[in-house]
Every structure is written in structure tokens, then in C-alpha cells.
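Structural prep section.
Before we set up the soaks we want a predicted structure of the protein with cobalt (II) ion in place, mainly to decide which crystallisation condition to try first. Input record follows.
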Amino acid sequence: MELKFDQRKVMLTETILRDAHQSQAATRMRLDEMLPVLEQLDEIGYYSIEAWGGATFDSCLRFLNEDPWERLRLLKSHLKTPIQMLLRGQNLLGYRHYADDVVEQFVAKSIENGVGVVRVFDALNDPRNLEVSMQAIKKYGGVCEATICYTSAEIEGREVFDNDYFVNLAKQLEEMGADNICLKDMANLLLPLRAYELVKALKAVLKPETKIHVHTHNTTGTGDMVYLMCILAGADIVDTALSPLGNGTSQPATEPLVATLKGTPYDTGIDINKLLPIVKHFKTVEKRLKDDKILNEKSKGIDVNTLLYQVPGGMLSNLINQLEKAGKADKLMECLAEVPNVRRDCGYPPLVTPSSQIVGTQAVMNVVMGKRYKMVTKETKDLFAGKYGTLPMPLNEEVAEIVLKGADRITCRPADLLAPEYEEIKAKLISLGYYEKEEDVLSYAVFEQVAENFFKWRAAKKQGVDRDMAKGEVYPV
Ligand code: CO
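Run finished without errors. Recording the C-alpha cells verbatim:
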């Protein structure tokens, strides 16, 4: 392999306000822990600061009694650097497909309230699930960063998720209007030399103005090497997290990469001295999260299980939990061997929420029942029926017959089957008496019960009810 250096500044996206604490601390960083350093973060010269979307929205409403829209507006009032969010295509930030009118409104309000860069992905890499959100991002003036979820699988000794697969997908997304292409390695399965080849292949076919933005974690310990190789291959932007919440299950740390690239043709232009006071602040946040037993030391280390079994870390702990509950903890190795079989049967979905849960649960059932597909979950059925979208590879038809038992399959874009729902949801919220602003409708659309609880708390607080009382289960009316 030949390494050629060219003059090209590399840019960083800082993830400490989103993925870093989502990955290490159950997304529990509070707004008051962000506010003191926003001006300093703004002066660093990041490409963007990831601060919204993903699990932050759910966590604000569910655990922190914060209005996620209010958080976004406050962040924006302190930041000129673009705020980046993570959006799960037609799923938005929730767990089902939403109708197109809700998707468009959600994107419109996100951008209106301060999001500058929207990274949008689909768990199955089905571009049809990105169509409406991508159109809306462009329409309302955001930077549209469409994602290819990295995954790998061998059929008869041949890698099926080869460069051609990813290049075709990236080209399709570029044609649909993507400004950036994100290569998202959610499980840190990507290995450095593979990453080099892949970014080279993408660079060779994408337009020169289309930026390649790489996202990985350091769960398996390859993250820094992956970034360095991607940068050598031509990646424009990579995601890092300041060291107090960097590495392990989070992103590779910001400071070592800044130092690594300094004085080279890839210099980020970031002054490491300016990072130090911010690092000092986040050390106190890290300590608070540890004191509250939210941040576990284990999430800081290296876990090679993902590389050994090709299942993401979160999925492995789910498998262990499910088996323990069934009293079959001794069947773990059998289940780990069954995961790739189930994945093959259902057309090799990348293993990320929700496909990782669906495949993992079905593998446990197949092993525990002693017969494959004797029992199937509704989600497995829906996956085989095309209700999550088109699977990357063909289904195992024999298994599909058993799973579906003659049930209908769909080949259209799943959201084509959904009638508009925004006005109906809005009317319901108004009738409940909780409507204050249009954004409330979106919170309610995506997290119905959780949002309702938050609205109750908000109403109680406004009526001057004691804050601690308002946090409890009982709400004075
Ligand atoms: Co991530």
C-alpha cells in the first residue's frame, strides 16, 4: 500500500455533548453541565458539535425533566459552530416508522430551532427510508449528511459487504442530495486497513465537494488507527470526544488526534492549549456521573468480544440477560453461533437498533426452543415481511416461508402505507390540555407516554407545585 500525503486540512466533529455521554453514561449529561463551556467550545474551530438527537431527546424527557427543544435553543444561543444531530430516518428518534408529514415537521423544527448538520441513517441501509428526511433537510436549509452503516458478512468465504456495496449506496445517497457521506461504524467493527481501502474507493467515485465524515467508537480498541488510516485515505471529517468522556465505548479522544496531526499536511488547526480548560470542566462532569453510578469504569476499557463474535457490545449483554432470565446461561456460545445464521436467513441486516435486538432475540429463541423458528417474534415476522425496508441481501426463502406462514410481504417503501398523522396527534394533545407550542406535538408524536409525563410535570411546575413533589408519581390536578 502506498501512502501519499497531500495538503488537506482535516476537520473534527466534537461528540462530547451527544454520543460520548450516550455511549458511556446513558445520555445523562444535563444542560447545566454543558452551558459553562459552550463559548470555549465554540472557539475551538470544530466542523460541528454533535449535541442533539440520538438518545438525548428521550433522555431529556424521561430522566432529566428537560424540554429537548429548549435545550436545543439554549445551545444554539451560545454556539456559532454548527450543531449536529443524529436522526434515524423514517424512525426519527423513536422506535417505529412515522408518517411523512411528521418526519417533515420534525426536520423543519429541528433546523428552525438550531440544528445545522443532520446526520441521517437507516438501520437496513435502505435509501427509501431516508428519502423524506433528506428532502426535508435540503428544503429547510440544513447540511444533509447521509449515512452508510458499516457492516460485514462472509458468504462462502467471500465478503459480501465489499467496496462495491458501499460505493453504490454512497453514490445513490449523493444523487438523492447528500452534501456529506458519513461512514458510520457503530460497533467499532471496522479495521484500519479495510477502512483505508473503503475510504479510497468512496473518494474515487464521489464528487470532490462531497465530504466523507467517519464515525467510529473505540470499543474494540481500533478507533484511533481507523481514523488515521481514513485520514490518509482522504476522509475530510472524523468524530472525536474530549478525553474525559472519550475512548472505550465512546469515540476516540480528541486531544491525541489533534496532537497526532499537528504540523502534518492534515493539521486540524486546533490549538490543543485551548482544549485544556474545557477538558478540566468535563473531568468534573465525569466525576459527577461516576458518583451517581451512571458511568461505569468498564465502559472506558477495551472489549474485543465484538471482534471475536462480530456482535456489538450492547447486543452481547442483551443476549446474556435474556439467557439468564430463561435459566439457560450455559447456552451462550450456541447463541453466539446462531446469531450469524439468523442474520443470514433474514438477508444480512447491519446489526444496529432495531435489527440487532430482533436478530439477537430470534437467535436466543432458536436455541432455547431446541428447534429453529419454532417460535418467532412479531418483529422477526415484520423484518421478513419487508416492513422495516429491503434487506441488503436476499432472504433465505425456506425460512421465510416458515416465518411468514403465508402472511403478506411488502416491497414498497414502508412509510407509503402510513396515512398522514400530524393533525390527529396535534388534536389529541390539545384535547389533553398540554399543547403549548408546535414542538410539543413532535415530542408527543415520537415519545407519547414519556412526553405526556413530562408535560404533566411541566404543568405542575408552572402552577407553583413543589419541584420534588412534581417529580414524583402523583400529580395534583
Ligand atoms: Co455512535
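Observations: Residues 19, 186, 215, 217 surround cobalt (II) ion (CB under 6 Å).
Flagged for discussion at group meeting.
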